[in-house]
Specification:
The structure is a homodimer of 465-residue chains. In chain A, a hairpin with a 7-residue loop joins strand 11 (313-318) and strand 12 (326-329). Chain A contains 17 helices and 18 strands. In chain A, 57% of the residues are buried. The first copy, chain A, has 3 domains: 2-35, no CATH class; 43-69 and 296-463, v583 domain like (v583 fold), CATH 3.90.1700; 74-284, Alpha-Beta Complex (Enterococcus faecalis V583 fold), CATH 3.90.1710. The first copy, chain A, is globular, with a radius of gyration of 23 Å. The termini of chain A are far apart. Chain A is an alpha+beta fold and 465 residues long. In chain A, 39% of the residues lie in helices and 20% in strands. Chains A and B meet through helix 10 and helix 11 of A and helix 10 and helix 11 of B.
């Protein structure tokens, strides 16, 4: 012992950095190893994890779930009216983003958007009556995810709204997403003024039938190759969709011009789409939902098949754990705020768009999109680092989505809830930030993390007999 | 001396690697420093260089030339008929890529393209007569560059052809480029069959007036911001133009649909443009030509203002050396050949498109376009390395063209002929490869280098009293 302390010390310090500080202060050398106990020290979750790690049944189930995700071939098949094409959509039902939530717990933008949807449907004549109706229980609310659907931000889908229809013939499942309204005063940020409702009506009456005619002319559109190409053009197809939107319009415009749709409607549709860099986002989300629903329901699998936020709760679903949501408080995003706004103005993390990260895109594919750091913060090196970090918590690389900057390696995909709890590495999410007041709109963008608690709860549930 | 060799040797070997080998063979340590004498050991060029390096008059002239290049704001102003809008275009004149060359020395694709242009103009009734006419001297040939114009590959511009018109109001100069025909059997690769001529006629009679109507609706289009955005989307706007072409169609399509052009022509124009990932190339070239012509003619400047190839000669022009070309044999490109073709089938390096590299784009901006290596060969690391290497031979970074992968540094731009000779670092060029027989078309793509000899000749000329 005395011999040990007689010579100069060279210490490897694992975990808490404060233990290394007195050594350094006295002239010793201490190398700090970044380590934290599994489940952030939660004993119960750690014990559950110990049962699951290395379990060959979980490994086999995860291999199957990951294969189903990888084999998916989402195709845009058309456009439909939500009330007609969503199998379980009620007549007076409104779908929203994230895990289920009751009216009084909803965040401002979601309440505003629901009031807007009630006005849009003509169920009430003004915003005050719409809110009263929503509070009264006269309208049923449900998660988009319970209907194979997704929606960005508030994620509102009401029966008359048009939705993209995506099919995955490899597994026989379908998915749906509403259409992107553009930026500014829009329903998904809680705005419900007359101009918002008028735009939604135009989307229903003009844009949707025009797009339907164009899609009929174009035929089914394979979404994975288009998304893969966009990754080679600087998109991560969550918070940056300029390439994918541009590629889509190149495919759609000639088809629209050959279609049976009236020329004036075609011109208006093309102008509307061409003016919106995020138009593709909702198709990216539907494609991701189709890929992940294919992987859902594999008994024993710890693969995460949904991450979604309602502005109050952050929830995940896991392939082997059925319809159950595992939730935690949704964080407020520490991002780049637009001039005049700050964290104090922000709603908590909101929207179904984290389905893209769940599918290995968005923050997981940030290495494809170095230019996005001007929008979400950080450096191009951070973008690479985020993608590389996600390899530690995912089951596979998706060879259909390659990353040029990483020598064409596939995106890390298929989050293993066990590995998140084990490593403490939290799924990274690129996201827009909504103002907490309905209708103000987007006030920033940033990189956020899924809360560990969701994954710990899922692991605890998995380990139950 | 004996003391030196008594202990173990640690040698720094500068230049020829073979001197280090015997040291290593006897167990010594020799670090190899990659170095070559200036001008590759050419004594006359080296002596000329010694006069020019550090000369404050050259430095001041280069600063002025580089500023003029950086200040350029090329705008697409419209489309016109070459014979009407090119100020010095003769009635029976055909312009071609690269430095001037007489008919009998021209490469196969250029001869084929000229025969095609004669047929297209109706000056001869069949290809044999067209070739006889070209050989007879009845048609005048001139370099595109002598008319503020550029053209990819054979670069043929005849009087009836439509050309893009680009203006640089910052300097008061204009530039021109022909329109991209697409891939396959096209004039620029020397094809001159009936389908090729019919397409050119359609471009003249339908596409050009339709685009003119669309541009009249759109107004003048700033090209630099569009190119800058494309660099953030994986293009280097020479050999990869998918993003720029997509962004262009997003701007053009709504304008075309609002224009006075007939609906059927608009639909045909949009389909034609949407089908061609390289449609923007010719606009990129015209923009680069406008930026560099602004920098041309500064007395005493060693800044390169054009690099161009006619398939036989590689030529450069230098800001302070007037209209003179400094030429060397055009190299055959050692690239990725399409299946069934190899270097033995290739024409030597061809086309005015190296104007993009001269302007700091193309190979110089390869760091923006890692995915291009699947087309031109190499790895994404090579792409970064090419851009970084070019910083040693350029005068500036162009802050208008930033590279996300290099922390948003500007592209290296403004080639200094002195530095090329001094360092032996040759300008890198991304290029397509034409078959040596006219009309076969593109048979590959690759990365090539401008020949040192062009720059040595320019430096020798500069040093003359």
């Amino acid at each position: 012992m005395s011999a040990l302390f007689g010579g100069p010390l060279s210490v490897l310090n694992v975990g808490l950095a404060s233990f290394a500080e007195p050594i350094a202060a006295r002239g010793g050398t201490a190398t700090q190893l970044d380590w934290a106990p599994p489940a952030a020290g939660d004993r119960a979750a750690g014990a559950a994890l110990a049962k699951l790690v290395g379990d060959p049944r979980v490994e086999a189930a995860n291999a199957k779930a990951a294969d189903l995700y990888l084999a998916a071939q989402p195709r845009l098949t058309g456009i439909g009216r939500a009330g007609e094409v969503l199998p379980k959509m009620g007549k007076r039902m409104i779908l929203h983003a994230g895990p289920p939530i009751e009216w009084k717990r909803m965040c401002g933008p979601m309440q505003g958007a629901i009031a807007g949807a009630i006005l849009y449907e003509g169920w009430a004549g003004d915003a005050a009556r719409a809110r009263a109706m929503a509070a009264s229980g006269d309208v049923a609310f449900d998660s988009c995810h319970h209907h194979a659907a997704v929606g960005p931000m508030a994620g509102i889908i009401s029966p008359s709204m048009p939705v993209w229809r995506v099919a995955n013939p490899a597994h026989g499942n379908q998915s749906f997403c509403n259409l992107n309204e553009g930026l500014g005063k829009v329903l998904r940020f809680g705005a419900n003024s007359a101009e918002v409702i008028a735009r939604l009506k135009w989307m229903e009456k003009t844009l949707a039938p025009t797009l339907a005619a164009g899609l009929a002319q174009l035929g089914e559109l394979e979404l994975k190759p288009l998304m893969a190409q966009a990754l080679h053009m600087g998109d991560e197809v969550h918070n940056r969709n300029v390439a994918a939107s541009s590629l889509l319009i190149r495919r759609l415009a000639p088809a629209l011009l050959k279609s049976t749709a009236p020329a004036a409607d075609v011109a208006a549709a093309i102008e509307f789409i061409a003016g919106n860099d995020h138009f593709f986002l909702n198709l990216s989300m539907a494609a991701c939902k189709a890929m992940l629903d294919a992987a859902h329901g594999v008994a024993g699998s710890s693969m995460v098949t949904a991450m979604a936020r309602n502005g109050v709760d952050f929830g995940i679903r896991v392939s082997g754990l059925g319809a159950q949501w595992f939730t935690a408080a949704a964080p407020v995003v520490d991002g780049l705020y637009f001039s005049g706004y700050g964290k104090q103005d922000a709603a908590a993390d909101l929207g179904d768009s984290a389905i893209t990260e769940t599918a290995g895109l968005g923050g997981f594919a940030m290495a494809a999109a170095p230019a996005i750091v001007k929008f979400v913060g950080g450096t191009p090196q951070d973008a690479l680092a985020n993608t590389l970090a996600m390899t530690h918590i995912t089951l596979r690389r998706n060879g259909a989505f390659t990353l040029p900057a990483l020598d064409f390696a596939g995106t890390p995909a298929g989050i293993d809830a066990r590995r998140v709890v084990d490593t403490g590495i939290l799924p990274v999410i690129n996201t827009g930030i909504a103002h907490q007041e309905p209708g103000v709109g987007q006030i920033g963008a940033g990189v956020t993390r899924a809360p560990l608690e969701c994954f710990s709860k899922a692991v605890l549930r998995m380990a139950q007999p």
